[in-house]
Specification:
The chain is an alpha/beta fold. The protein has two domains: 294 residues, TIM Barrel, CATH 3.20.20.80; 97 residues, Immunoglobulin-like, CATH 2.60.40. Helix content is 24%, strand content 30%. The strands form five sheets. An eight-stranded parallel β-barrel has the order 1-2-4-5-6-7-8-12. Strands 17-21-14-13-22 form a five-stranded antiparallel beta sheet, with no helix packed on it. A four-stranded mixed beta sheet has the order 18-19-16-23, with no helix packed on it. The chain is elongated and about 75 Å long.
């Protein structure tokens, strides 16, 4: 789930494996020869390598109706082990079914499978001594589709050395569909796969595209008849890029240190994610077993969704947040302008706001610029607003008073222009 090793300059998966949108329903129905499970499970990733008190509190919390947690417990970059420090007492208190996630970065697994198996057994011994309900192991390793045969051989060797009573899952990329024979062999080794449909291309304006996700799920269902789950986003990214557009630094966790005009935000639109949940709940591909959310909301993680937002998405719902325009009078007809999220869930403000003709001076700030021809403040993308967040967007001088507070009406994607009275 972390940084990917695909050949293109992305901060996510490899290149897009595009399928015509008209095939979605057909491909989904093609695999419906077996009855679906009674209910699709809801699990979340805990991806922090060093747990703080808020991470432990989030794990203990019962605010979200989860069926399990997948916990990053082992991490290698090449052949270098990255230390992890977890709060096992929090996992024991929550008592949810667990999977130990093994993150292996690099274009090929450089760490011997025997070394990984030894580390896994040590972690499992510790976890089980604390009474943790470990049900399986997940390997999170990403590479180009051309390396799948080598990965399959490595995974088969690892599986032979792991406890036979634990299920083995793998995270998977849509680009692997380009190598169907090797993919089929890889999926035959794993007991299940987890298809990640977010953060697919650094050139995309957003982390997630609902139509692409539905098509990838359809193709995954049709490719091989083995169980799978779908990993969905519940986070944002801050990306600082070079002049040529190549991503230089990516912040995906914590307080979001990348600030200023040089850093651009990439997010998954909650309404689009909820749409995929809703439609797949209705279509019910026969091999789909549930959802995996990246990642568990943690207080203070400003790039993660709030629990309220995630809870709606888990149900396939997403109401529009109450977004307000605040006009703070400074005297002499001047008003400082702010967008305010007056709701308890994350929301998108409008990407354009039109002002009345009597506002003769209009100046944007931050991501918002002035379009004098239409008397609008506009931004390249709709601004993300966390609950109770205020965002300064500019100022105006008007011959008549502006309402101090007014609700703006925008689409769930934030693309609509709002108009002040």
């Amino acid at each position: 789930m972390g940084s990917r090793c695909a050949p293109e300059p992305t901060y996510g998966l490899g290149r897009l494996s595009r399928i015509g949108t008209g095939l979605t329903a057909l491909l989904l129905l093609a695999g419906c020869d077996a009855p679906p499970p009674a209910a699709l499970t809801q699990e979340a990733y805990v991806w922090q390598r060093t747990w703080t008190a808020p991470v432990g509190a989030a794990v203990r919390s019962r605010e979200l109706d989860l069926d399990g947690l997948r916990v990053l417990g082992l991490h290698w970059v090449g052949d270098h082990a990255v230390a992890t420090r977890l709060d096992l007492s929090a996992l024991a208190a929550r008592a949810l079914p667990l999977r130990l996630v093994i993150r292996i970065e690099g274009s090929r697994p450089r760490i011997p499978s025997a070394t990984v198996a030894t580390a896994v057994r040590e972690v499992l011994t510790e976890w089980q001594s604390q009474g943790l309900p470990v049900q399986g192991i997940e390997v999170d390793h990403d590479c180009g589709s051309g390396g799948l045969a080598d990965y399959a051989a490595w995974l088969a060797s690892l599986k032979a050395e792991l406890p036979a009573n634990l299920s083995l899952s793998i995270t998977a990329l849509p680009s692997w569909l380009d190598n169907p024979d090797a993919l089929r062999a890889l999926r035959g080794i794993a007991d299940e796969s987890v298809l990640q449909v977010h953060a697919v291309d650094a050139r995309q304006a957003h982390l997630f595209n609902a139509d692409n996700a539905l098509n990838w799920v359809a193709a995954w269902q049709a490719n091989a008849h083995s169980p799978f789950r779908v990993a969905l986003p519940a986070y944002r990214l801050r990306v600082r890029s070079a002049a040529n557009g190549k991503a230089l630094v990516v912040a995906a966790e914590g307080p979001g240190e990348l600030a200023g005009d040089a850093a651009r935000e990439r997010y998954a639109i909650p309404a689009e994610v909820a749409r995929v949940v809703r439609e797949l709940n209705q279509m019910r591909p026969s091999m789909l077993r549930g959802w995996l959310w990246f990642r568990l909301p943690v207080e203070g993680d400003r790039l993660g969704w709030t629990p309220t937002t995630l809870a709606y998405a888990m149900r396939g719902e997403m109401p529009m947040a109450r977004i307000e325009l605040l006009a703070v009078a400074r005297g002499n007809g001047l008003f400082d302008l702010f967008l305010h999220n007056a709701d308890q869930l994350d929301g998108l403000g409008p990407s354009a706001i039109a002002f009345p003709a009597h506002c003769g001076v209009l100046e944007g700030s931050g991501a918002f610029v002035t379009d004098p021809s239409t008397r609008r403040l506009q931004a390249e993308q709709a601004p993300w607003l966390s609950p109770d967040q205020r965002l300064a967007i500019g100022f105006t001088r008007c011959a008549q008073p502006l309402p101090a507070q007014q609700v703006l009406h925008a689409s769930p994607t934030g693309s609509a222009a709002a108009t002040t009275p």
